[in-house]
Specification:
This protein has 409 residues and is α/β, with parallel strands linked by helices. The chain has helices at residues 17-29, 48-56, 68-81, 97-112, 127-138, 147-150, 156-165, 243-256, 281-297, 300-318, 325-337, 368-371, 384-404; strands spanning 8-12, 33-40, 62-66, 116-118, 143-145, 181-184, 189-192, 222-229, 232-236, 239-240, 261-267, 273-279, 343-350, 353-360. It is built from 13 helices and 14 strands. Strands 3-2-1-4-5 form a 5-stranded parallel sheet, with helices on both faces. Strands 10-9-8-13-14 form a 5-stranded antiparallel sheet. The N and C termini lie far apart (61 Å).
Length: 409
């Protein structure tokens, strides 16, 4: 892309070091007008400083949008209906936020007449893919600027030098150093880099922001109830809450009980392995609760099929294909399965652990009459199991007999 081709760009802007440097770099390199967009996804930070920084940099059009309810209702909850876990562990807290940010960024670009969008993701990570695939899915002809793939500020040291030369404030961590990389939203916090780059070393406690140490959690368990309607949580302890407020409440409960920590080495879409520390307190409770209510409301084969589809669904989100036809197809199947997933579960939270200790539903498929060890009054004829077993064993018996005659298995 030639520099002169861009007249106005919408920058996904947090006000942190990277995007503050990018803002100045865009102004000086592309000589274009920069519009900043900051999404409030419940990251727990005051966003007005981002506005003031943008104003100080000469930005005339500044967007700071509260997207918390949209984020949870239209992105987090649909993902949790699938029980999505990437590589069996990661609750996709960063991955699920990117399509919403990109969607709003494109909306703003069309609103203000911008011909380009820009993001602060590096050329080594997954977020560049997530942002840009979403951009192109929503606006195929959009111009994309990815400074980390273009500029010569190829290290954290050079980035800091540029910031100092341009009088850009540099945040400090608890030890007075430039902080490790942190991404946060209402669902999770993610920390990478610096002290976390050596996977053999335990992450220091200062990395954790959303949870207390499980060892420091109360000695008395916390028991709560969560109500579900069509696969989505609606109430905690009988109190109806909006999607964002419900997740906020679960986060508070998870934090107080040391729930939701994950130290993970994962496989990035771009090909390398990376180590990150994730905290997803409310999401960890929600996943266990959702599986709890599904256990009595979903047919066996439907539940097993969902579990087979889940890794594919999780990879689609992790790799940035939220707006793809395959994600929409899977979502339709998942949502169809949730029409019966209503009821109440009771959850026990204790020192980093969460477990379902009770579940009830008007749509329950659990039949006490059939499963009881007491007299079932003829509800189940145990003799039927003999034919069932023999039919399922038939191919094995035939194979064994063929093997005795010298046939191949």
């Amino acid at each position: 892309m030639r520099v002169k081709d861009v007249k106005k760009v919408v920058l996904a802007y947090s006000g942190g070091l990277d995007t503050s440097v990018i803002l100045r770099w865009l102004q000086t390199t592309y000589k274009c007008e920069v519009v900043t967009f900051t999404a409030d996804l419940g990251q727990g930070e005051e966003l007005e400083p981002a506005r003031r920084k943008a104003e100080a940099a000469g930005v005339k059009e500044i967007f700071i949008d509260d997207l918390r309810e949209t984020f949870v209702k239209d992105f987090v909850f649909p993902m949790f209906r699938a029980n999505a876990l990437y590589e069996g562990q990661y609750l996709l807290g960063t991955s699920i936020a990117r399509p919403l940010i990109a969607q709003r960024q494109i909306e703003i670009a069309e609103m203000v007449g911008a011909d380009a969008v820009a993001h602060g993701a590096t050329g080594k990570g997954n977020d560049q893919v997530r942002f840009e695939i979403a951009y192109y899915a929503l606006k195929p002809d959009v111009k994309v600027i990815a400074p980390w793939r273009e500029w010569e500020l190829t290290s954290r040291t050079r980035l800091l030098e540029f910031a100092e030369q341009n009088q850009i404030p540099i945040a400090k961590d608890k030890r007075g150093e430039a902080p490790f990389s942190v991404d946060a939203n209402m669902l999770h916090s993610s920390s990478e880099g610096k002290v976390l780059e050596e996977p053999g070393e335990e992450a220091p406690e200062l990395v954790y922001q959303r949870t207390i140490r499980p060892e420091d959690a109360p000695d008395q368990a916390t028991v709560i109830s969560i109500d579900f309607e069509n696969g989505d949580p609606t109430h905690i302890d009988g109190v109806k809450l909006s999607p964002a407020n419900l997740l906020t409440k679960l986060n508070e409960l998870g934090r107080a009980n040391g729930i939701g920590r994950l130290d993970l080495v994962e496989n990035r879409f771009v090909g390398m392995k990376s180590r990150g520390v994730y905290e997803t307190p409310g999401g960890t409770i929600l996943l266990a609760a959702h599986r709890g209510i599904e256990s009595i409301t979903l047919d066996r084969e439907a539940a097993h099929l969902k579990d087979e589809l889940m890794p594919r669904y999780a990879s689609i989100i992790y790799n940035g294909f939220w707006f793809s036809p395959e994600r929409r197809m899977l979502q339709a199947a998942i949502d169809a399965s949730q029409k019966s997933v209503s009821g109440r579960v009771r959850m026990k939270l204790y020192k980093g652990n969460v477990s379902c200790i009770g579940r009830e539903s008007p749509n329950s498929l659990y039949s006490m009459k059939h499963v009881t060890f007491e007299d079932d009054q003829g509800a189940y004829d145990q003799f039927d199991a003999q034919g069932f077993i023999k039919l399922n064993a038939l191919r094995l018996r035939l194979g064994a007999m063929a093997g005795r005659k010298g046939g191949s298995l």
